[in-house]
Amino acid sequence: SFPRDEALRKKWIVALRRKDFVPGTRAVICSKHFKHSDYYQTHMDTLRLKKDAVPSIFDFPRHLLKVEKTRRILTKQSHSHIENSEPSTSCDNPPTVTRQAIVDGAVLSG
């Protein structure tokens, strides 16, 4: 049956992914929805569900599965001239960007 502890009960309800589900007093979840590690063995060799166990094995329809979205990082490439030593006249080759900085009187190119 569902746990009486409200925090754990809520975890079980969330794990089920059923909208507006409120378990009745006789509601149960089948053992196949728990991992083997969610159980402990008693001295009588029976398996008991651990007090903090949450059901985690489900065969949800595809639309209910959580999808990990990957993020792509877009980089912006500049084709502008900052201080170009030679102007480009060709449209086929994008212009090369040359940057210069003056540090303590010396010109640094990069």
UniProtKB/TrEMBL annotation:
Residue stretches of biased makeup (Polar residues): 85-97
Database matches in SUPFAM superfamilies: Glucocorticoid receptor-like (DNA-binding domain) (SSF57716)
Region spans: Disordered: 76-97
InterPro entries xrefs: THAP2, THAP_Znf, THAP_Znf_sf
Transmembrane feature ranges: none
GO molecular function terms attached to this record: DNA binding; zinc ion binding
One Pfam assignment: THAP
Keywords (A to Z) from UniProt: DNA-binding, Metal-binding, Zinc, Zinc-finger
UniProt keyword Protein transport, yes or no: no
Stretches assigned to the THAP-type domain: 1-58
PANTHER family documented for this protein: THAP DOMAIN-CONTAINING PROTEIN 2
Name of the protein this chain belongs to: THAP-type domain-containing protein
